[in-house]
Amino acid sequence: MYNVLIVDDDTLMRNALRAMISRFKNFQIIGEAANGAEAIAICRLYPVHLIFMDIIMPGMTGIEASKKIKEDSPQTEICILSAYSDFHFAKEAMELHIKKYFSKPVSFLDISTYLENFSPSTYKSVCPQLSQALELANSQSFSETYAGLSSIINEIFSSQNASIESLKKTFIEIGQGLLDSLEYANQRNEITDLFPLPDTWLVNGEIMKIWLFKIMDYIYQQKSIRRYSILEGVFFFIEQHIKEKISLGQITEGSMISQGYLSRIFRDQFGISTMEYIRLRKIQMVKINFIFTTHNTSDVAFMLGFNESSYLQKVFQKIEGISIQEFKKRLK
Predict the structure, then answer these.
(1) Residues 97 and 158 occupy one common structural domain
(2) Angstrom distance (rounded) from CA 302 to CA 85
(3) Which domain range does residue 250 map to?
(4) Considering the domain boundaries, does residue 294 fall inside one?
(5) 82-108: per-residue pLDDT in tens?
(6) Cα–Cα dist 127/171, whole Å
(7) Closest Cα to residue 320, out of 206, 158, 197, 238?
(8) pLDDT (tens digit, 9 = 90+) per residue, 47-73?
C-alpha cells in the first residue's frame, strides 16, 4: 500500500484527485494540504510514497516545497500539477528528479495510467520484514494475514543475534511502520503507547506473533470503520463480549445492523465471516492463557465461551495447524 499526499490550494482539484486516486486499492490518501508549508509538515510526520503537487500556491511554490521534502525524504516520488507551461519550473523539477508532470485539468486516464505503472524503486525500509508486514496488512484476507505472521516471526528470530535490543528495534520499526500506514487526523501515535512491548516478551516468538496480530487486527478494524462507520459499533460489541459465547444474531441485535448487511460488509473488509473472525480472536486469547497462566484446557474453554474443551481443541487445530498439546510442548 502506497501513501499518497495531495497538495493543491484549489479545493475542487483536491476533491477530484481524491475521487480518482481512491479507486485504486494499492493507494491510500493519508492527507491533503492547501500549501507547501502544510505539505512539508505532513511529510515530516508520516511516511509518504507519492505526492501530487501543484506548482503555483500561496506562500511557497510547489517546487520550493518539493526541494524541502526531498531533503528530508529523497525516496518520495513527486508529480507536478500545473495549468501553466513554464521552462523555469520544468528545469527545477528535473534537477529534483521529478519525472512526472500533469497538465491541468488532469484526466482520470492520465492518473490511472500512471498509478497502474507506479513502482518507487528507491523506497526501501531499513527492516526488510516491514515490507512483508505491510503487504500482509493490505491483504484482502484476515486469515491469510494471520497465517503470514509466522514467516515474519521466524525470519526475525533466525536473523537476529538474540540481542534484546536488536529484536526490540526490529519489532518497533515493524509495528510503527504498520501504524504509520494508516491515515491519521491528528498527531502521530507511538506504537508502544498503543501496544506496549516489555523486554520479557521478546524472548518468546509466540508472544510476539500475538503482539503483531493485535496490531494487524487494529489496522483492519480502523480501515474497515473508515469504509463502513457502522462497523465501529460492531467491534465495540465484540470487544465487550469476546469472552462469552456470542452468536451472529446477538452481534447484529446489539449493534443495530441486519445480519445480511453485516455479513456482506465484514467479508468485504476481512475476507472471512464475522464468526470466523471471532474464533480467530478467541484462539489468540487461548494462547495467552496457556503462555501466562497454568489454566488447563477445560478451564480456558469455559472462560472463553466454548461449549466444551473438545470443540476448543478442534478450532485450535484448524486455525493453528497443530494441537493444543503440541502448542504447550513448544512453550517448554
Answers:
(1) no
(2) 71
(3) 128-331
(4) yes
(5) 775 544 555 455 555 666 778 788 889
(6) 9
(7) 206
(8) 889 999 998 888 988 889 998 998 888
